Amino acid sequence: MTDHVASLQPGFEPADDEACTSNPWLVAIVVSIAVFMEVLDTTIANVALPYIGGGLGVSVDEASWAVTTYLVANAVILTASSFAAKRFGRKPFYLACVTLFAVSSVLCGFAWDLPSLLLFRVLQGLGGGGMVPVSQSILADSFPPAKRGQAFALFGIAVVVAPVIGPTLGGWLSDNWGWRWCFLINGPVGILSIALVSFLLKEPKTAIEERQKLKGEGIHFDIVGFLLVASFLGSLEVVLDRGQEDDWFASSFIVTFTVICVLSFVAMIPWEATRRHPMVDVRMVAHRQFGACFLVMLATGAILLATTQFLPELVQQDFGYTATWAGLALSPGGLVTMVMMLVIGRISGKVQPKYLIAAGAIVIALAMHDLTRINPALDFWFFALSRMLIGVGLPLVFIPITMASYDGIPPDKTDQASALMNVARNVGSSIGVSLALNVLAWRQQFHQARLVEHVVPSSIPFQQTLQQMTGYFAPHAGSAGDAQRQAFAWIGQQVQYQASLLAYMDVFWVLMLLSAAAVPLALILRKVKLGAGTPMAH
User: Fold this and answer.
1) Domains of the chain: which residue ranges?
2) Contact 353, 403 (CB under 8 A)
3) I want to staple 34 with a disulfide (CB 3.0 to 4.6 A). Which of 91, 116, 193, 213 is the partner?
4) Measured between alpha carbons, how far is 225 from 216 in angstroms, rounded to an integer?
């Protein structure tokens, strides 16, 4: 493979007349709206879990399966989407995915018990997981090479900004309209998307010819490979999402799924490596260019979702913010991300991706380092500015990584590349959240144990604090004993508060190191041919 192979792919040629009968920007907007709703649903239900549990009469822990089942179904279908799009046609498959996503979303809103909600969430995850890689293909065929960087900037806005809006929107809807509206809102958007896609989108001749060629060659669905990949990714998602709540390997449930994950992975590698038409071409990850991009996308997904989930939790738990104000703290970063996506979309064809990715990773690492300075005196704008700095870095990684990852990929492997990069983003997101959760829990216990060592009667600072707080509570307490008990309780709360802040600092240190690790990976990427737009799987 050479650096020029990508430019010879059918999907990289200027869109043909049939594909350009509609305004490509309208197609991009319609496709991005659908993708926005799909990515939004990875986070919107998180803050609604207490409401879902109360509404369905189950615990929050049981309700959290509504998040896990969606993530598992989403990961499983990703690898099969490229084959289905080729076999049945990109437009029919995309419409089927949007329809399934919209219908199952409405059914989630009308779920009558937990099993019905979980079933509908699985269907929703299957529909949503098929949309994202096919959306990339649609955009690549709708735009000439010179405009693809800008088109994928719009796509990137949907992918990066949606997780930021999800928790805020989910909290607001749950507070004011009920948790069911977190799912029902997808119904009208889905109907509009189906209508617009049906009217605007036409499949290009190259895609039709490719489908006819596929049928003529008699290529069959790799069912064994799909089952192995699905078992591996599905069990991995379960372990990552449920591990912390179920006490990891102290739980037979987690041990069982870990064994399934390992066995599926061990069997998947030789099977997929020896197939002529594998479900996932694992050999691609062994190539320096694509493998490095795969790892960087893992780190990007981890940073994106981990920071999106833990910043709102931090300001609500330790700084007393409401869900609305926590969302507002993230909002300026979302605006910066949107602007930067458009800027990077324009310059991505002029600057080598490896340098943009390295710069973005450095900016994100600096933002994580800035967050290690958290203390009780911080105000709203500290968190808003930190998120804005992250909003500068993410687009510097997200768009160029697309250009670099598809460089040198032969024409018959671009759909595989698209699926693998989306798997990297999804799995990376789960790894990031799981890693941060474990660091937070472990370090909070550690810091609390260290702080409690100083809360002893022989400690003069402890005696002074206890005396001062007892005097503070005395006018409001019924007796001196009550005042002292309130003082003890206050000291205990302060120990937990300080342990929590220190643990969050450790989380941001880990995320900073993760971001920094992406810099050398970016610099080992080879240079790509510039000036032909952003190469993308078709």
Assistant:
1) 1-220, 223-274
2) yes
3) 193
4) 22
Quick one: which of 177, 194, 217, 220 has its CA closest to 48? 177
The C-alpha angle 170, 173, 175, rounded to 5 degrees, equals 105
Q: Which two tokens stand for residue 161?
A: 């900004």
- DSSP states along 423-456: HHHHHHHHHHHHHHHHHHHHHHHHHHHHHHTT-S
Q: Are 367 and 390 in contact (CB under 8 A)?
A: yes
* d(C-alpha 31, C-alpha 45), whole Å: 22
Q: Which of 129, 151, 154 is nearest to 38 (CA)?
A: 129
CA distance linking residue 381 with residue 385, whole number of Å: 6
Q: At what angle do helices 148-176 and 323-347 cross, to 10 degrees?
A: 170
d(CA 157, CA 159): 6
User: For the chain, how long is the longest CA-to-CA vector?
Assistant: 89
How many CA atoms lie within 13 Å of 113's alpha carbon, on the beta-carbon side?
A: 1
Q: Taking the chain (538 residues) in consecutive chunks of 10 residues, what is each chunk's mean pLDDT?
A: 35 40 70 78 72 79 75 78 74 86 90 88 86 73 63 72 73 79 85 81 64 63 80 82 76 87 87 74 75 80 75 78 74 81 78 85 89 86 88 83 71 69 79 81 84 73 73 69 73 80 89 86 76 41
Q: How many CA atoms lie within 13 A of 491 on its CB side?
A: 23
Q: Dihedral, CA atoms, 99, 101, 103, 106, nearest 10 degrees?
A: -150
Whole-angstrom Cα distance, residue 214 to residue 206? 12
Return contacts of 457-462, CB within 8 angstroms, 24+ apart: 462/491
Backbone angles phi, psi at 377, to 5 degrees: -90, 0
Helix axes 380-405, 288-318, angle to 10 degrees: 160
Cα–Cα dist 195/192, whole Å: 5
Per CATH, the architecture of 1-220 is what?
Up-down Bundle (1.20)
CA distance 425 to 75: 10
Q: And the tokens for 408?
A: 């040198």
CA dihedral 290, 293, 294, 295 (to 10 degrees): 130
Spell out the residues 6+ positions from residue 265 whose beta carbon is closer than 8 angstroms to its own.
Answer: 232
Q: What's the chain's Rg over C-alpha atoms?
A: 25
End-to-end Cα distance, the chain: 18
Contact status, residue 231 vs residue 260, Cβ threshold 8 Å:
yes
pTM of the model: 0.73
Would you put residue 247 in left (φ > 0), alpha (ψ -120 to 50) or beta?
A: left
Asked if residues 389 and 332 have their Cβ atoms less than 8 Å apart, the reply is: no
- CB proximity list for 176: less than 8 A, separation 6 or greater: none
Type of residue at 516:
A
Q: CA quadruple 137, 141, 143, 144: dihedral positive or negative?
A: positive
SS3 57: coil
Residue 306 · residue 432 · CB < 8 Å: yes
